[in-house]
């Protein structure tokens, strides 16, 4: 079945601390994604949403969002068909900021797809595996192909502040986005019943 509207993919920058790398990595993924014509890609930066630690009185499964910041975040996530989570590894998991942002919502994530771009001194694989578990509870399908950036190899300079991704990563970005678009298109039919 074909759809008139292009698939909408959010590239979520998943950390918020000053000096973070998530925004730089998200913009790089966006620059590569923009070469494609099979979906529309937008960066969604957690830092722009200023979400406090979850402060909703009713659990998100009820969909009774009380706070303006939750309603804005819900409207943002609801507007996308698919996600690319750009996640650091913090203590062998994802960032608290990203977990908190995920926890805020429920229905807006359901029956959608996610791919991952991780980074850390050990490439962030454990953050991705944790995210897969978390997202399964939210009925998000996660694709196999992912992109793993290594501090020391893909970030250089004395304090690793220069982003110098190795060329080989572009192949992995393409593979991950291919799967996100394919599954994202398929799952849109599920949501439309
Ligand atoms: C609280 C904290 C915990 C970290 N834990 C890990 C870790 O478990 N494994 C790892 O490879 N890197 C770890 N790092 C290094 C980060 O992956 C690296 O600093 C990265 O740039 C953090 O993401 P951000 O710049 O977007 O905040 C940690 C960094 C922080 C701030």
Automatic annotation (TrEMBL):
Pfam families: FMN_red. The keyword Oxidoreductase applies. Gene3D superfamilies: 3.40.50.360. InterPro entries: Flavoprotein-like_sf (IPR029039), FMN_Rdtase-like_dom (IPR005025), NAD(P)H-dep_reductase (IPR050712). Its EC number is 1.-.-.-. GO terms for molecular function: oxidoreductase activity. Keywords: Oxidoreductase. Residues 8-150 form the NADPH-dependent FMN reductase-like domain. The keyword Oxidoreductase applies. It comes from the Bacteria. This is NAD(P)H-dependent oxidoreductase. The lineage of its organism: Bacteria, Bacillati, Actinomycetota, Actinomycetes, Kitasatosporales.
């Amino acid at each position: 079945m074909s759809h008139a509207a292009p698939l909408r993919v959010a590239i979520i920058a998943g950390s918020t601390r000053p000096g973070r790398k998530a925004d730089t990595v998200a913009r790089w993924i966006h620059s590569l994604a923009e070469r494609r014509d099979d979906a529309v890609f937008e960066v969604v930066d957690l830092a722009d949403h200023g979400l406090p630690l979850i402060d909703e009185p009713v659990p998100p499964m009820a969909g009774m969002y009380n706070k303006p910041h939750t309603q804005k975040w819900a409207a943002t996530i609801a507007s996308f068909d698919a996600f690319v989570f750009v996640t650091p590894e913090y203590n062998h998991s994802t960032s608290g900021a990203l977990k908190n942002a995920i926890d805020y919502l429920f229905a807006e994530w359901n029956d959608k797809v996610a791919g991952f771009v991780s980074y850390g001194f050990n490439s962030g694989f454990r953050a991705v595996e944790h995210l897969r578990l978390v997202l399964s509870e939210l009925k998000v399908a996660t694709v196999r192909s992912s992109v793993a950036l290594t501090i020391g190899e893909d970030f250089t300079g004395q304090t690793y502040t220069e982003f110098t991704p190795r060329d080989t990563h572009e192949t992995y970005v393409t593979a991950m986005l291919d799967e996100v678009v394919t599954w994202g298109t398929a799952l849109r039919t599920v949501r439309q019943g």
